[in-house]
Each structure stands twice: as structure tokens, then as C-alpha cells.
Amino acid sequence: MKIKDILEKKGAHISFEVFPPKTESGKESVLQAVKELITLQPDFISVTYGAGGGTSSQTAGIAAAISKAGVTSLAHLTCVSSTREQVHQVIDRLKEEGIENILALRGDIPDSGQFPLPNHYRYASELIEDIRTRGDFCIGAACYPEGHVETPHKKDDIRHLKEKVDCGVDFLTTQMFFDNHILYNFLYRIREKGITVPVIPGIMPVTNAKQMQRICQLSGTVLPARFLAILDRFGENSAAMEQAGIAYATDQIIDLLANGIRQVHIYTMNKPEIGRKILENISQIIRV
Ligand code: FAD
């Protein structure tokens, strides 16, 4: 099913995310995680895409397995490290596999700094235009409530976002954020600029403090004092950190739903128990 049609349905919509294994041998454990996530009846499950290398070829296969099990899948696709021909091949494979939803991404600029390479894409908007010509896909794209690191001024980032959406985006998924007010302010700003497509907030239940601090430094994500205190106090104890991370994510989701947001994407990171615990915490809330 197309995600834009799912989002039009009444009620709250919850989705999960998995990432492909680095090697072929890791595929079984990812498929097991997918199986367990499916029992939680999410509205869809997304599969990330490694920019080049081994994991990129796994995305289509895992997304196809999700669809075959009767759950809508969303295949991520990045373009910056591949030629246009290589990207076209991936799009055609997704079409053959019957995958209807693609999250069209540029990907991070390669460390070599050579950007863009000849016959390569420069921005996600170019990829979106290409996907549109190659099939009847529902296309999602990324957005950044705190702004994307490469664009110093938020208003420029929102202008680029509007141009991207106008290329044919059906919905947006956000980068993780830990202060809901940042999302509410972002929504008000993009709506004011005429971006009207649904926005799915991405919520990251933090279970590994060190890894998360590094990711947030790179992406420029602000860590509120309340969240920093949790990392500081429980970061060294993985069981305590997991419990606190799930509670914090639950709190964010309840606040979003209480403020009229109807869809939330949970970055479950191949850990079905995280999805299960959060869903248990909000089981009555999502029925309202
Ligand atoms: P774009 O939309 O192209 O934007 C990139 C930058 O260029 C922004 O700063 C934007 O303001 C600027 N820009 C856009 N158009 C113009 C223009 N015309 N002129 C000047 N500047 C412009 N990465 C992966 O490798 N695999 C994944 O599976 C993956 N999944 C993700 C899922 C989500 C929900 C999010 C939020 C990010 C994900 N990423 C993933 C990371 C993403 O690839 C990086 O953040 C990347 O740096 C930007 O990708 P984009 O599609 O947002 O790029």
C-alpha cells in the first residue's frame, strides 16, 4: 500500500525502521527482527540504505520480504555515491519487487570531498525527479527540524525543502530530535512556506549513550538538559539507559499525539523489543 494512502486513514500511525546487515551472513538476524516487528502490526517498516558497499544491495531484498509478509515497506535510496545508471537499476529492481514506497535521499557527501562526481546526483530533488519518471511510486524525503548541517541558515534549508517537495514528494520523515518544541516550530515554519505534505516525526529511543552523543555532534542535534542528565546518570549502565531511553521516547510520542500529530516513525534499529515496549506504553493512547 502507498504510505500517502495509509496516512490519510483515521487514527494514529506507527512505523518502525530496520537497517540491512553489513554482510550476507547477517541477513538472517535482520529478517528475524523484521518478523518480530511485524507481529506488532506497524503501519509500515522502513529499510535504510548504506551509501555504496555491501548493505545497499540488501535493502531491496529486505523491503521485499516485509511486503511479502503483508506489511507495507519503505525502501530508502541514497544517490550521491552512485552513478545515475546504478541508481536507475535499483529503482527498477524495487519496481520489480512490487515495492511502492521509496524514501529518496541524497546521502552524506563522501569523505573524499569530490562532489558531485560527473554523471552523479547533487541533491535529493534530482533523484526524486528521476524516480517519478520510472514508476508509480509513493515518494518520501528527509527533513531536518533543526536544519541540515550543510546549510547554515534554517530559512535556506526550508527553501530547499520546498523546492524538493515540489519535485514530487508525497510525505516527509524527520531527522531525530529530542525536544518536541523544535518540531512544532519547524511545522509552523514549513506550513507558512506552503509545504503541505504530511510530516512523520522520527523518534529515536536512545539505548547507547556514547554512540548517540557522537551522532548528535555530527548531525547538530540539540540535546536538552533533561536528556543530557539521563545520558550522564545512566549512560554507563546499558539496562538502565535502555529503560530511560524508552521512557523518554514514549514521553515524546505521547506529547506529539496529545498535540494533534497522528503519525510517528520509531527508529527501532533492528531491536524489536524496543518497538514492543513503546507500543505497550501507548497501547490505550493510540486508540483515542
Ligand atoms: P538534500 O535534500 O539534497 O539536502 C542536502 C543539503 O543540500 C541540505 O543542506 C539542503 O539544504 C541543501 N540543498 C538542497 N538543494 C539545494 C540547492 N538547490 N542548492 C543549495 N543547497 C541545496 N543516509 C543514508 O546514507 N542512508 C539512509 O537510509 C538514510 N536515511 C535517512 C532517513 C531520514 C529520515 C533522514 C532525516 C536522513 C537519512 N539519511 C540517510 C541521511 C541523509 O542521507 C543525509 O542527511 C544527507 O546529508 C542529506 O540527504 P537529503 O536527502 O536530506 O539531501
UniProtKB/TrEMBL annotation:
Name of the molecule in the record: Methylenetetrahydrofolate reductase
Pathway annotation: Amino-acid biosynthesis; L-methionine biosynthesis via de novo pathway; One-carbon metabolism; tetrahydrofolate interconversion
GO cellular component labels: cytosol
GO biological process: methionine biosynthetic process; tetrahydrofolate interconversion
InterPro entries in the record: FAD-linked_oxidoreductase-like (IPR029041), Mehydrof_redctse-like (IPR003171), MTHF_reductase_bac (IPR004620)
Cofactor(s), names only, from the UniProt record: FAD
Record-linked Gene3D superfamilies: 3.20.20.220
EC number(s) per entry: 1.5.1.54
Keyword terms, alphabetized: Amino-acid biosynthesis, FAD, Flavoprotein, Methionine biosynthesis, NAD, Oxidoreductase
Enzyme superclass (EC): oxidoreductase
Family annotation (Pfam families): MTHFR
Family label: Belongs to the methylenetetrahydrofolate reductase family.
Catalytic activity: (6S)-5-methyl-5,6,7,8-tetrahydrofolate + NAD(+) = (6R)-5,10-methylene-5,6,7,8-tetrahydrofolate + NADH + H(+)
Gene: metF
The UniProt record lists the keyword Repeat: no
GO molecular function: FAD binding; methylenetetrahydrofolate reductase (NADH) activity
Keyword hit for Amino-acid biosynthesis: yes
Residues spanning the signal sequence: none
Coiled coil stretches, renumbered: none
